[in-house]
From TrEMBL:
One of its GO terms (biological process) is regulation of ARF protein signal transduction. SMART domains: PH, Sec7. Residues 2-178 form the SEC7 domain. SUPFAM superfamilies: PH domain-like, Sec7 domain. Keywords: Cell membrane, Cell projection, Coiled coil, Membrane, Phosphoprotein. This is Pleckstrin and Sec7 domain containing 3. Residues 1-25, 185-219, 440-491 are annotated as: Disordered. It is found in: Cell projection, Ruffle membrane. Residues 1-11, 185-202, 472-481 have a biased composition (Basic and acidic residues). GO terms for cellular component: ruffle membrane. It comes from Cyanoderma ruficeps (rufous-capped babbler). Residues 229-342 form the PH domain.
């Protein structure tokens, strides 16, 4: 593969060299690479998306030539997508995957110009199927989307018009009856049961980022990178406050438990034993892991049963409470988590399904952003401006008092979401402007006054948390997860 990378570099690296003219040498090089990718000639399935998803002219030529190996003429969109996914693994960063799906949409439209009115329409339905696949077959997603909701969410998305209802029903039933899956390399299949849980197989070699979870949409899996930086460690007591989508956690699962917490990369690992770099993570450790991408940590001001408690709200609206050793330690955890989220959270995935009539949260990818810190700041600022405008418009048209309860609840849910997102992006922007890079690069040595309390755990440290865990039985009577109908403001 090295020769191909050099070849690609030679073609794309020349200053001012315009590849858009499709010169014969560039086109031939693209065709050769595309052919080898399609036939997996000294390439793995996981290599294909990397070459098709790059943002340069040569990769676009390669993608165009690669897609020519697929003839979707007369095929339905769902069958074409399944056929496409049999050839390679859809991996990589969010933007790269998005480009691959755009190339697919372009090819499908070329083969079936009369099936759907535009290439954008094809891409919209392609992304809609991806998200529907996650909704129907993913884990811990909550209430599954109905066919009626799927159709309603796509109203007006076909260049301002509606897609044929029969087409949407057919796509919905196809995804419902058979989930979308993509090919994987044979060696990955063998590792699938131990991936991320047994690092002995990796030796001392650099391991690619693997995934925690079995989601059927790679945008949602938690990235597990054994080589990621460790930003903070220390003992924390955890209480699960709300499950995915803010739904109330069952009583038997709300109790406080003490863990040794490790904020490594964009994942907060909760381990039973103290962190050791050379020690492999157990299945239980991975099960307890929490991704902090697009998350927000704050002081749990509405919780008074224990001191030094912070609240963490995740991208999928889980809410967890953590009790730290001291107030200073709690604030350090809050700062670290929010800094990691602000610096590394990738831009939200474009909303492929959704309409003005029904509120639906966008997909927040768990992959790490490729933007520079300045670009990340601009991205957050743009998102903050958008959310603020949307919140103002939303509140300028409150629901009629005569509306049914469901419509009012939907209004409150959107208001709750927009207010939280506005607060989240305000904090992200503030942190990036203050220069969080220095705070993160300092690792655990950035706060000398706190170094002793979390770098050398001892029995004296653990006792404040563990001693209070036993007095938690009565708390369960009146402590409830946040829902828009109960509590609108998230602090």
């Amino acid at each position: 593969m090295g020769s191909n990378e050099l070849q690609e570099k030679d073609v794309t690296g020349a200053p001012g060299h315009d590849l858009s003219n499709g010169s014969s040498s560039n086109l031939e090089a693209a065709r050769r690479l595309a052919k080898r990718l399609y036939h997996l000639d000294r390439f793995k399935r996981s290599d294909v998306a990397k070459h098709l998803g790059k943002n340069n002219e040569f990769s676009k030529l390669v993608a165009e030539e690669y897609l020519k190996f697929f003839d979707f003429t007369g095929m339905t969109l769902d069958c074409s997508l399944r056929s496409f996914f049999k050839a390679f693994s859809l991996i990589g960063e969010t933007q790269e995957r998005e480009r691959v799906l755009i190339h697919f949409s372009s090819r499908y439209y070329q083969c079936n110009p009369n099936a759907i009115s535009s290439q954008d329409g094809v891409h919209c339905l392609t992304c809609a199927m991806m998200l529907l696949n996650t909704d129907l077959h993913g884990h811990n997603i909550g209430k599954k989307m109905t066919c009626q909701e799927f159709v309603a969410n796509l109203q007006g998305m076909n260049d301002g018009k509606d897609f044929p209802r029969g087409l949407l029903k057919a796509l919905y039933n196809s995804i419902k009856n058979e989930k979308l899956e993509w090919a994987v390399d044979e060696e990955e299949k063998k590792k699938s049961h131990s991936d991320g849980t047994d690092e002995k197989d990796n030796g001392n070699q650099t391991k690619a980022v693997s995934r925690i979870g079995n989601s059927n949409n790679p945008f949602l899996d938690i990235p597990h990178d054994p080589n990621a930086s460790v930003y903070k460690t220390g003992f924390l007591a955890r209480k699960i406050h709300a499950d995915t989508d803010g739904k109330k956690t069952p009583r038997g699962k709300r109790g406080w438990k003490t863990f040794y917490a490790v904020l490594k990369g964009t994942v907060l690992y909760l381990q039973k034993d103290e962190y050791k770099p050379e020690k492999a993570l157990s299945e239980e450790d991975l099960k307890n892991a929490v991704s902090v991408h697009h998350a927000l940590a704050s002081k749990a001001t509405d919780y008074e049963k224990k001191p030094n408690v912070l609240k963490l709200k995740t991208a999928d609206w889980r809410v967890l409470l953590f009790q730290a050793q001291s107030q200073e330690e709690m604030q350090t955890w809050i700062n670290k988590i929010n800094c990691v989220a602000a610096v590394f959270s990738a831009p939200p995935f474009p909303a492929a399904i959704g309409s003005q009539k029904k509120f639906s949260r966008p997909l927040l990818p768990a992959t790490t952003t490729k933007l520079s810190q300045d670009e990340q700041l601009k991205s957050h600022e743009a998102k903050l401006k958008q959310i603020s405008t949307e919140l103002a418009e939303h509140r300028s048209y409150p629901p009629d008092k005569k509306l049914k309860g469901k419509e009012v609840d939907d209004y409150k849910l959107k208001d709750h979401y927009l207010e939280f997102e506005k607060n989240r992006y305000e904090i992200y922007v503030g942190l990036l402007k203050e220069g969080v890079k220095e705070l993160l690069s300092g690792g655990e040595n950035d706060a000398p006054g706190l170094k002793k309390s979390h770098s050398s755990p001892s029995l004296n440290q653990e006792s404040p948390v563990s001693a209070k865990v036993k007095r938690n039985v009565s708390e369960r009577k009146d402590y409830r997860p946040e829902t828009p109908s109960i509590k609108q403001k998230v602090t």
